[in-house]
Design a protein that fits this description.
Elements: E1 13-14, E2 21-22, E3 28-30, E4 33-35, H1 37-44, H2 76-80, H3 82-88, H4 103-121, H5 127-162
Antiparallel strand pairs: 1-2, 3-4
């Protein structure tokens, strides 16, 4: 990834205000966060934009992606459809959910970090597009869970009904 202001220099992070990738020369550290020079200048000149600042879409940029606060939180789709969602969102570490004994722990980790990882490793049109897609994953996960439970009950009843019990 290259700096937005110096296209031949590698970026070291992204501005938390505008989301542009910045190099070591462009970064300004304020309160432990990276800002680009234009955003830092706006902040010091009193022209800082309000909380309605539109963040540039940095999805799909790996560790350089800025995670919008709107997408942080639990992801039921990642928890319920862990390995499927991992493949669909290019979150390859999620395939650890297929490993025995590790799978349940990984499902929980995906529930907690799934949104952030999906944002980092796949390109999205917008935050709304991301949230809409993750909602769809959630509904599919709930549907698969309910379907599995219904099939389990039907199989259980069939096994009990076909087993002849004799008490003598």
């Amino acid at each position: 990834m290259k700096c937005a202001y110096h296209p031949i220099v590698d970026a070291v992070g992204a501005c938390v205000n505008c989301g542009r990738l910045i190099c070591a020369e462009c970064k300004v550290m304020l309160g432990g966060k990276f800002y680009c020079n234009p955003c830092a200048d706006k902040m010091f000149s009193g022209k800082a934009e309000t909380a309605t600042t539109i963040v540039e879409n940095t999805s799909g940029q790996g560790s350089a992606s800025v995670i919008p606060k709107e997408i942080k939180g639990w992801n039921w789709g990642a928890f319920l459809l862990n390995w499927i969602l991992a493949i669909g969102n290019s979150v390859w570490i999620g395939l650890l959910s297929l490993v025995p004994y590790v799978g349940f722990v990984m499902a929980i980790v995906l529930g907690v970090k799934g949104n952030e990882w999906a944002w980092r490793y796949k390109r999205w049109d917008s935050i709304e597009h991301f949230k809409r897609t993750q909602r769809t994953w959630t509904w599919w996960g709930v549907g698969v869970l309910i379907f599995s439970l219904v099939i389990g009950v039907i199989v259980g009843i069939a096994v009990i009904a076909t087993t002849e019990r004799r008490w003598w």
